[in-house]
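REQUEST ID: PR-0412
SUBMITTED BY: lab tech R.K.
PRIORITY: routine
TASK: structure prediction, single protein chain
INPUT:
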Amino acid sequence: MREIVVFGDPILNRVAEKVEVFDEELTRLAAEMHRIMISAPGVGLAAPQVGAAIQMAIVDVSVGEDPDQLHILINPTICETEGSQKGEEGCLSFPDITTVVERPYRVLIQAQDLAGNPFELQAEGFLARAFCHEIDHLKGVLMTDRISRLKRDLIKKKVQKRVKAGTWQP
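STATUS: complete
OUTPUT:
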């Protein structure tokens, strides 16, 4: 089983490759990502966070409780945004670290499903936040890229202390 890649691994800062092949391997990766995300636990996970540099992300704000809440986004783009919201965000690639991030309140997403079929999806509030966070990962953008330099430096210092203590291994 794959493991979650943590901050410091260069894959998290790369732009992911567009998915061109929609096959069983892609479906297996999506299922494995969902299992990893739920066991973490988290509400979203992007393929680069498990070492796969492709444009696929999953979001499930029910954390596996409601199958209808699982969204698999392949080659997603944010087409429209409206409003703004500030809120505490965590990230599975930054274990036990949170920070306040500003995101759009409402988004319109275009993506493809596991068969390659295009679809659109509107979301607001927490779901919109989760979509934006995961789509950022596909662009090599981390939550720390969306905060002030001071806050970013504080997080980097926390990570450095944990690296020295042996509790953080990129």
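NOTES: Residues 10-165 form a domain with the Peptide Deformylase fold (CATH 3.90.45.10).
REVIEWED BY: pending
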